[in-house]
Amino acid sequence: MKLIIAMSLITISFVSTAATQEQKNNTKFIQDLMLHSKWAGMCGAIKQMGNFQESTKMPGGDEFIARFIATEQARLNISPQQFLDVCEKATSTYNDYAQIQP
Prior knowledge:
With 102 residues, the chain is mostly helical. It has a domain at 28-98. It has three helices and no strands. Keywords: Signal. Residues 1-18 form the signal peptide. This is Lipoprotein. It comes from Yersinia aleksiciae.
């Protein structure tokens, strides 16, 4: 009887640990997806601002976009090249996620 109880406790412990690890993996995946989506959205919005400015030639628009991007880089404490690299990676990863079929 003690053996059955011990085996049951070991099994429950193992299942609980496995479930917890699976939850951690799922949470990590969801957080990663959210982070890449947020970055891809921000980068897409900045790209759209550039496209809009290119087509409208709005007075002061170039300066606004440059200041906006510089402010974001300072807020995030990253260089212009790092900003471009993160945008490229986030957009690529987001597009990969978008191809996943349920």
